[in-house]
Amino acid sequence: MPSKELVERLLGEVRRMPIIDCHTHLRWNHAGADDVSDIFGYHYIMAELLSAGMPHEKLLGAQTGRERIRNALPYLPRISNTATWWGFEEICRRLFGLKGAFGEATWEDVFATSERRCREPGWHREVIEETLNVRRTMLTNNYDEDLTGYDRSMFAPALRIDPLVLACDRPETVASVQKATGMEVRSLSDFKKAVGSVFHRFRHDFGARSSAISLPPDFSAFPVHEGDAAQIFDRALAGRRVTDDEFRRLRSHLFYAYTAFCQDNGLVFQLMLGVDRLVYLNAAPSGGDAFSTDPSMLRTLRDLLNRYPGVTFDLCILNRVQMHELAAMGKIFPNCVVSGHWWYTFYPGAIREALRERLEMIPVVKLNGLFSDSYYCEWTVAKVAVYTRALAECLAEKVEQAYFSEDRALWVARRLLYENPVEHFGLQADEQLART
Amino acid sequence: MPSKELVERLLGEVRRMPIIDCHTHLRWNHAGADDVSDIFGYHYIMAELLSAGMPHEKLLGAQTGRERIRNALPYLPRISNTATWWGFEEICRRLFGLKGAFGEATWEDVFATSERRCREPGWHREVIEETLNVRRTMLTNNYDEDLTGYDRSMFAPALRIDPLVLACDRPETVASVQKATGMEVRSLSDFKKAVGSVFHRFRHDFGARSSAISLPPDFSAFPVHEGDAAQIFDRALAGRRVTDDEFRRLRSHLFYAYTAFCQDNGLVFQLMLGVDRLVYLNAAPSGGDAFSTDPSMLRTLRDLLNRYPGVTFDLCILNRVQMHELAAMGKIFPNCVVSGHWWYTFYPGAIREALRERLEMIPVVKLNGLFSDSYYCEWTVAKVAVYTRALAECLAEKVEQAYFSEDRALWVARRLLYENPVEHFGLQADEQLART
Amino acid sequence: MPSKELVERLLGEVRRMPIIDCHTHLRWNHAGADDVSDIFGYHYIMAELLSAGMPHEKLLGAQTGRERIRNALPYLPRISNTATWWGFEEICRRLFGLKGAFGEATWEDVFATSERRCREPGWHREVIEETLNVRRTMLTNNYDEDLTGYDRSMFAPALRIDPLVLACDRPETVASVQKATGMEVRSLSDFKKAVGSVFHRFRHDFGARSSAISLPPDFSAFPVHEGDAAQIFDRALAGRRVTDDEFRRLRSHLFYAYTAFCQDNGLVFQLMLGVDRLVYLNAAPSGGDAFSTDPSMLRTLRDLLNRYPGVTFDLCILNRVQMHELAAMGKIFPNCVVSGHWWYTFYPGAIREALRERLEMIPVVKLNGLFSDSYYCEWTVAKVAVYTRALAECLAEKVEQAYFSEDRALWVARRLLYENPVEHFGLQADEQLART
Ligand SMILES: [Zn+2]
Ligand SMILES: [Zn+2]
Ligand SMILES: [Zn+2]
C-alpha cells in the first residue's frame, strides 16, 4: 500500500542512522573476507546451488575459490531469484564495482577488485563504519576463546554455550571445560563452578554483553533439583548410560544454572530457537540445517522468564509460525526483548510480517533490529540493505494508515537500529569510545 | 496495493454503517468510564507499560487515576508505537479534544474534559449511538447476575459459563450455582438441571442471545457417557480426588450438555479459543494472559459441530496460526460462523490477514465483524476505528484486483458490521425497538 | 505496494505464456463439462452453498442441473464474496458470454450457451489450448485404469496410489490389485510385485510422469523391515486383527517401497499433504473434507528424501502454517520441488504469501506453478486467472522493491508456468508432439 516515493524517502533517512548489529560470527581479528569467493561461499548460497542441481563435487570439491565460482557459473541463473542471491550481487555492486549480473562476463573483474580491496588496510573498518554506519557488532565466541586485544570500540563478545547445555553429558565437553578453565571437574558442582568462571571472565575480562545459545525445537526447560542433576552428571561422567529423560533433566538444570550466571554477570541471555541440525545429510556445512515447529517451544520458557526477572532474555525464532506467540511474550514479559529475523526468517516478506506485528503489539523499546548473522563483514552490507528496506516499507505503511507520523516512524527506526540494543546490551558506558 | 484514495473513500462509507458489537464486557447499568483514567487503565495498556519498564508499584500502586497517569508520563513514549496506544490517543482525540500527543502538556486538559463529559447524562448513549452508530452491544454476564431493567434496545446479554465447565469440580462452583438458582445440587443431574434453569432464565427472562466460554488451547471435547460423568461429579462433590483424565471427561460431558442447552434455548454458542491464563505472573490483572497453540484446538470441536447442527457456533481464536484452519471450518460447517478478531489478534495486520482470507474462503453471511471486547464504551471508539480501516483496506484491495465491484464491497461491509450479527443472534425481532 | 499499472502490464505478459498444469482430475476421454451445471457442481461451490444455509435436499436432491441452479438462485448472493464464486462467474464470462452477475436474469442464457458450446467438437481443446495456452495437463489415474488412446500431446497421466498405502490392509484392495494385474497375491512380496507391474505399465505403456498420493496430517514415514511388514500383511490378508501401530508400519513400508518404484521407473513422486477426510459429515461429496496441522507432517519425510536422492519429490500442502517449513525443505533438498497451491491454499492471499516466500527462499528452478486440481477443463480458466494475477502481483512487488528487473520477473514467470514442470516431469521428449 505505501507509495514508492514515501518508502524511498524513509529509506533514505533510515540508511543514514547508526546501527548495532546484534548477532554475527565475525572474527574479531579478521572481520572481512579475503576475496569475493569467501563471500560467495556463504552456506545460504552453497545450499541453493546444490539444491538447484549443481553437482556436489563441482561445488564442494573445487580446489580454489576461483574454481568454485567458475564451476558455478552455469548454475547461477537457477538461483537468481532468491533474496540471498540478490544480497550477493548487492555486495558486489556496493563494494566491488559490479554492473549488471554477476556471471561469465563480470565475475573476473569482481574477483580482481575484491582481492585488491579486501586486502587494503582498514578494509573491514571501512565496510562496517563508513559504508554501513554500524557502531558495534556483537560476536559469537566459544568459551575457550581468548579475546585479548579485540577492538572494543567495534565489537562486543557473546559467550556461546551450546555444547555446555546440549552436549553436557559428553566427556569431551567436560574435558574441554577443564582445559579452558584449568579447573578440575569431578562433579556437577565443579562443572558449574568452572563454567561460572568462564561467564565471569567473559564479562569482566572481555567485556561480553551476552551469552547465547541455539536451542532445538523440542528443547524443554523446567526446574530440576540440584541433587537429581548431580547424580545424572556423575553417571554421565563415569561413562554410564543416561536415559533420554535424565539427559533432558540434566540439560534443563544447567540451562537454569547458566541463566543465573547471566544474572550474576549482568549478561543478556540470547536464545535462538528452533533449528534442526543436519536435516539434509549430503549438504554443504550448515547448508543442511532447517527447522520444524514444536508447539511448546516458547511455552517451555515461561517458567524461566518468570523466575529470572533480572535477566534480559533476547529471543529470536526460526519459524514464522510462532512469531505471533513470541510477540505476545515480548508484549507482556518486561524481561523479554525480541531480536531481529534469523536465518530462514531473514527474508523480505518474513521480516515485513514480523516487523509489522511487533510494531503493533510490542513496546518499541523491546525490539532489537539488525541481526545480520554474518560470517564476513561484507555480508552485513546485504543484510542491512534487505532489513532497512523492509523496515522502511513497514513504517511507510503505518504512515499512510495515519497510525504513525513520519517523525514517529523515524524515531521508531532509530530505536530499533541503535538505541534499543545500546540500552539492552549496556553499550552506553562504552559509547565514548565509539565514533558519534 | 490499494490506492489511498480508494481506501479513504470506502472507509468514509463504512464508517456511516450501523454496527452490532458481538462481544464486550460493558456494564449495562454504567457503560462508560468515569474519566480518562478508567480508559487509560485498560489491561492492554497496563501490560505494555510494565513491559516497557515502568515499575510495578508506580503503575499499580498509584492511589488515584490522576497519580497513575502522572507516574506513567515518562514511560508513554516507550509504548507510543503500539496499536493500543494509538487507540487510546484516538479516543482522547475523538471524545476529549486531544490535539497532538497525550503527555505532559496535554493530559490534564484531557482529564478535565473527560471528567466533565463522562458524567453528562446520556454520555454512553452518545458514544455508542451517535458517535459509533452501534445498534446493539453484546454483553458478558455471569450466571448469577440479575439483568432486570437493562436497556434492550441497546444491549443483548451473553451468558458466560467458564466456571461451569473449567471449574466444575470445585465445591464453590456448585455452591454458587445453588445460590444463584435456589436449587439443591446433590448429583450431576441436579447440577445440570440448575444450570439448565440459568440458561432458561437468561433466554426467556433476560433476552440473552448467546452463551459464551473461553477455552484454553488444550481443552478437549468428546462425548462422555452420563453415568461416567455422574460418578466423577459425585467424587468431586464429596471432596475426593479426581484425576486429570476424569476431570477432562467431566468437563467435556458438561460442555456437551450446555451445548444442548444452547440448542433448547435458541442461543448461539460463542467459543473463544486459546487463552493461557497467568503466563506472566507479576502482571497487572489480565495483563499476564497470553496464548499458545495446540494443534488439536479446533479439531477437537468437529464432533460437537456435527452432533449439534441446530446450534450456531460462533468461533474466534487467539492465535494467527489456526486462522486458516478456522476459515476452512467456517467454509464447510453450516453451523459455524466466525467472529471478529480477539485480543492478540485485534491488531491491524492480523485483522487484515484474517479478513482477506475469510472474505476469499467463507460465504460472507457466515462472518461477524466487530468484536470490541471493550470494558468501557469509550474503547469501542478505538476498536471501531482500527477494525473499519482494516476492513476498508481489504475491500479496496479486492476492488483493485477486480474481484469485487465497489458496490459489492460495501454490501460485504454492511453484512459484516450489521446484517450478519442481526441474523445470527436473532436480533431482528427487537429491531423495531432500535433506532433506524 | 505495486502500482496497478505495473501489475496489469506484467499480467498481460504472463497471460501469454505457455502453461503446464501439474495436477488435475480431467477425464482424458471427455475433458470438458456437458453444460454449465457441471461447472456449477464443483464441490467448492456445493460446500459454500450448504454452508451459507441452502437446504441439503434442495441442492443435492435436485434431479437435473437446471433444477439445482434454479434452486440455488436465492442463495447465490450469500456466497458472492468468495474466490470460488468469482471463479465461477469468470468462467461464465470468458466462455459463455455472461454479462453482470450470474443469477435470475442471466443464468438461462448462460446455460443455453454452455450447452451449445460444450458440445462443439474440439471444445476442450479450444479451452485448454486456445483460451489458456496450457500445453500439457497432468491427470489423476487409478491403478486399474486403461489409458490406451489418450492424447499424449495434451495430457500426462499420474498414477494415483492412495488406497495402495492407506487401505493396504483391506482385502478389497488386494483383490482389486489382483484383478488389475492378473497376478496372484499371497504375500507382501506378491503384492509389491503386482503393484510394481502397475508402476511399470503406467510408465512404459502409458507414459505416466508421476505417481501421486494424498496423505493425512498424521501420516508417519519411517523405514520398516521387510520381514516385519510381511508378517503384518499376512495377518491382514488372513483377516486377522492388525493394531494401529502395525498398520502404521505396514503403510510406511509400502510407502518406501513405492518410492523405490518411482525411482526405478523415473517417476516424480507427488505428495499432497494434510487433508482430513469427512470432517463435516452431512456434506456434499468432497465438500466435507478439511485439514488440520500435525507439526511433524513434513519432518516425517526427511528420512525418505535423504534415502532417495534420485527421486524428485513434488510437494504441496493443505495449510498455510507449514508453508515456511516446506519452503526450507525446497531450499535445501535437491530432490524436493514445491508445487502450486492446493485446495484450501488456492486462494489469492494464500497464493501470494506462498509465492512471495518461495521466490525469496527457493531456487526458482524448484518451483512448479499451476496446480489447478480441475475436474472439468472449464475450471482451469478460473484457476489460471486467479493464479496468474497473484503471480503478477508478487512479481510487481519484487520489481518495485528493485529486487527483480522486469525481465527477470517475466523469466521467473515462464519458469514457473512452463519450463520447470517440463524439466521436472521430463516432458521435453514429447515436446515435438506439442504445438510450439
Ligand atoms: Zn548465528
Ligand atoms: Zn472478552
Ligand atoms: Zn486433486
Automatic annotation (TrEMBL), chains A, B, C:
Gene3D superfamilies, sorted: Metal-dependent hydrolases, uronate isomerase, domain 2, chain A
InterPro entries: Metal_Hydrolase, Uronate_isomerase
GO biological process terms on file: glucuronate catabolic process
Molecular function GO terms recorded: glucuronate isomerase activity
Designated name of the protein: Uncharacterized protein
